[in-house]
Specification:
157 residues; HIT family, subunit A; 5 strands; 36% helix; alpha+beta
C-alpha cells in the first residue's frame, strides 16, 4: 500500500471531539491567524477550510448560529454575498484559478459536515485539478500550506 505523508491531519484525528459548534468557537476566540480567519464583516466571517477539498477552499460563515437559511435577514444575506464576492476576487488574484465552485450543503444528507450553522463554500478550481489520485488512491493532494495561503490572503486584503 502506498502512503502519503500528511502530518497536518494528526490534529484532526487526535483532537477531542466536541458537540459544540466549531464555527461559534472560532468566531468567539478572536485568534484569527490561529483559526485562519482572514476576513470579518458585520454579519459573517471568511475562514480557510482546515481540511480542504482544494487549495484555497474557503467558507463564508454567518456570525450567528442559525440552522435555517430562510430565517436570515436581508442584511445578513447581502453581507454573506458581498464577503463571498470579495473572497473570490482575492483568491482569483492570488491563486489564479480558472474557475470556482460556490455552494451550500444544507443538511447532513446533502454533505454538510456542520449542518446546524449556515455557511457557504468557495472552492478555486483549475483545469486538471481532479486527477487519478482521488479515484484510484482515495487521496487528494493540496499543494500549499494553510499558513502560507493565509499570509498571502491577509496581504491582499
Amino acid at each position: 500500500m502506498d502512503k502519503l505523508w500528511a502530518p497536518w491531519r494528526i490534529k484532526y484525528v487526535t483532537q477531542k471531539k466536541t458537540k459544540k459548534c466549531i464555527f461559534c468557537k472560532i468566531f468567539r476566540e478572536k485568534t484569527d491567524s490561529k483559526n485562519f480567519i482572514p476576513l470579518r464583516s458585520v454579519h459573517c466571517f471568511a475562514v480557510l477550510n482546515t481540511f480542504p477539498y482544494n487549495n484555497g477552499h474557503m467558507m463564508i460563515v454567518l456570525n450567528q448560529h442559525r440552522k435555517s437559511f430562510q430565517n436570515l435577514t436581508d442584511s445578513e444575506l447581502l453581507d454573506m454575498n458581498k464577503t463571498l464576492i470579495k473572497c473570490k476576487s482575492i483568491l482569483k488574484k492570488i491563486l489564479k484559478p480558472t474557475g470556482f465552485n460556490i455552494g451550500m450543503n444544507i443538511g447532513k444528507v446533502a454533505g454538510a459536515g456542520i449542518d446546524k450553522h449556515i455557511h457557504m463554500h468557495l472552492l478555486p478550481r483549475w483545469v486538471g485539478d481532479t486527477n487519478f489520485m482521488p479515484a484510484l488512491a482515495n487521496t487528494k493532494i493540496i499543494s500549499q500550506s494553510l499558513g502560507e495561503l493565509y499570509k498571502k490572503i491577509k496581504k491582499a486584503i
